[in-house]
Amino acid sequence: MASGWIDVSVTLKTGMVTWPGDPPVRISHALSMERGDPSTVSLLEMGAHTGTHMDAPAHFVRGGTGIGDIPLDASIGPARVIPIRDRTSIQPDELAEHSIQRSERVLFKTHNSEHCWDTDAFVEDFVYISEAAAEYLAERQVRLIGVDYLSVGGFHADGVKIHRTLLNAGIWIIEGLNLKQVPPGQVDLVCLPLKILGGDGAPARVLVRPMDRSAGEML
């Protein structure tokens, strides 16, 4: 993209992969010029946690903040893309290598970005954040974390506990990133979820721009 920005959002389309049990995605035309209407108006049918999206505390915390009240500085600003070698789950020992600091925005680039988005079938064995890693991140009071598939919690893990550990610690969550084209390191992040009153989450357009590590400036 122009000026070094990389779109790490997943394209919304009919029949795309969703979390098992979530509403399927259907994009149709309520009005269509091809059918003789004066304009074309799309009808979107999908869950709030479709494709690239953000989770609000209200997703798993009773009385938690809704997505419409997200502080803008939570999802806009400097961030760090951290590569993960483990192909099963993100673990504290690997995170410890990166000296994650308080209030950081961290995006995890795992094996997911290399293959999960190549199919519209749900991939069960995606790399997820382990319970121990969620506790590690909560203790370090990071500002935001992003993962490169549909959930911070694994399909066969206790996803509810993992979400609650992060959300109760005040950590905002981006799920459904595609970081395949993004090198590890410092980036500028822009993530704007739809403003839904009291929403438990919302689809988002997410852009990153890698920094020049030596100069500390944007490419």
From TrEMBL:
It comes from the Archaea. Homodimer. The lineage of its organism: Archaea, Methanobacteriati, Methanobacteriota, Stenosarchaea group, Methanomicrobia. One of its GO terms (molecular function) is metal ion binding. Keywords: Hydrolase, Metal-binding, Tryptophan catabolism, Zinc. It comes from Methanoculleus oceani. Pathway: Amino-acid degradation. Gene3D superfamilies: Putative cyclase. This is Arylformamidase. GO terms for biological process: L-tryptophan catabolic process. Its cofactor is Zn(2+).
